[in-house]
Amino acid sequence: MNKTHTIGGLEITPQKCIKINEPLLSSHEIPEGPLVNISKNGDEKYTVNIIAYIADNFEKIPDNPLPKSCFYIDEKKKIVFEYSGISLVKSRIKNEMICRKFCIDYYSKPKEDKKYNLYHIKIDYKVLMKTNKFVEAIIVH
Fold first, then answer.
1. Dihedral-angle region of residue 93 (phi above 0 means left; psi in -120 to 50 means alpha; beta otherwise)
2. Model pTM score
């Protein structure tokens, strides 16, 4: 699990990907997005904790090579973590912010009455390449 991946100037090390709830929840009982926090652990080192609902009926991702911006975050190779770089984002807090964009993805067959598990995903990352842009936030979707 702790294999380090170098993507877009970051050294990313997955620390945890565990299911943390019972019983399963219906789609109308869960929030739309994940709960995320980030903490700084030294010079250019950060820890990101993500609490997200993932469909219970997810399956192994079809055998296609993953893009270089992605890696499997779970041991069963069903959940993918992606870092897509730095983007300029408009928000209600500030007109424009520079953000790092992360994504959690999985493959799930369509089903009307999907049930969801709550997962805790934790990664550490270190900034390898400094940019002239000051990153103000992260986005996880």
1. alpha
2. 0.86
Compute the distance between CA of residue 79 and CA of residue 85 in angstroms, rounded to an integer: 19
Give yes or no for a cis peptide into 65 (omega within 30° of 0): no
What is the DSSP code (8-state) at residue 28? G
6-26 pLDDT tens trace: 999 899 999 999 998 777 888
Choose among 108, 103, 17: nearest CA to 62: 108
Q: Model confidence over 49-73: pLDDT tens digits?
A: 999 988 887 777 776 788 899 999 9
Q: What is the DSSP string of 31-97?
A: -SS-EEEEEE-STTEEEEEEEEEEETTEEPPPS-PPPTTEEE-STTS-EEEEEEEEEEE--SSSS-E
Give, for 5, the enclosing helix (H) or strand (E): strand 5-7
SS3 category, 21: coil
- Cβ atoms of 130 and 94 closer than 8 Å: no
Give the per-residue pLDDT at 131.
Answer: 67
